[in-house]
Amino acid sequence: MQIRDVEMIEMNERNTTRQIARTVRLAGWLLGLMAAILLLGPAQARPQAQPAAKSSTAQGTTAKKSTGTSTARPAYDRALLRPALLKEKAPDEYKVQFSTTRGDFVVTVTRSWAPLGADRFYNLVKHHFYDNATFFRVLPGFMAQFGISAYPAVNKVWENANIKDDPVTQSNTRGYVTFATGGANTRTTQVFINFGDNKRLDHDGFAPFGLVTDGMKVVDMFYDQYGEGAPSGGGPDQDQIQKQGKPYLDKGWPKLDFIKTTAIISPPAPAATKPAAGTGAKSSAPAAKKPQ
After folding, report:
1. Domain count for the chain
2. What is the pLDDT of residue 290?
3. Cα 45 from Cα 50, distance rounded (Å)
4. Distance (Å, rounded) from C-alpha 87 to C-alpha 265?
5. In whole angstroms, what is the distance from residue 112 CA to residue 101 CA?
6. Could you give the percent of the chain with pLDDT greater than 70?
7. Within this chain, do residues 52 and 89 fall inside the same structural domain, yes or no?
8. How many whole angstroms from its chain centre is CA 107?
């Protein structure tokens, strides 16, 4: 073998060795890259998945807390359990919107007509006493009466929360709104809306404090076929409404209309809370029967 051939062989061997070394280095680099991808890839994915999981857990916790709070909240404004504290002076004029099972109507109250009655009505509406209250005594051509709470606990504390009489400055004609009474200075929570000309009630001390200024046609549609209340007629007994609340009415007189919500719409008043109703009446006049 010639020297030139030996040199060529040695050169080829060196090239082969270098090529192998490069291949080994390249393979090592590739293996390192793959390892980095395997290690770094999942590490980058976790922070994106974890917040989603935490968010889901937080939402679940929030939902549970919200449900618990809602369940624990009473159905009515607890301020209603302390009548002696609800003595805020009413505006000179204010409007109350009633949303009922027949539609909406608005009562405009003028304080100068009957200041004590206007103040009492304002506080009752502001604290949603009349929400869920039933029109339990609706007599065609006469009047529609409401004001016994749907909640017996509320009725119990208001049954003797009397206010003094106001002088009669307006007449009990169509659309005028007046407190029912059981005698002198016995007004509490019951109210009636006159359907027709009931001026004879003026002489008995029934002092209107407001007027239906929008939606009187809605009032005209209230269910009126049960007649006078027990024991005089087939309507509900006021004592039992006070003791049992709305379930008593729903069971025995399911067609009676009721108030869904009330709201002072002018001037705007701070929101209070939830539902309720008032007290009843007995004789041919819209008198509130005082429980013994």
Report:
1. 2
2. 41
3. 9
4. 20
5. 31
6. 66
7. no
8. 20
Q: Is residue 189 part of a domain?
A: yes
Could you give the CA distance from residue 144 to residue 254 in angstroms, rounded to a whole number? 16
CATH classification of the domain holding 181: 2.40.100.10
What 8-state DSSP symbol labels residue 289? Answer: P
pLDDT digits (tens, 9 = 90+) for 153-200: 999 999 999 999 999 999 999 999 999 999 999 999 999 999 999 999
Residue pair 83/161 in contact (Cβ under 8 Å)? The answer is yes
Written as six digits, the tokens of 253 are 């007189």
What's residue 95's pLDDT? 98
Please name which of 126, 134, 172 lies closest in space to residue 151, comparing C-alpha atoms.
134
Strand residue runs (E) in the chain = 93-100, 103-110, 137-139, 143-146, 176-179, 191-194, 208-214, 259-266
141 and 231 fall within a common domain? yes
Task: Please state, in angstroms and rounded to a whole number, the distance separating the CA atoms of residues 234 and 250.
Answer: 15
**Amino acid of residue 289:** K
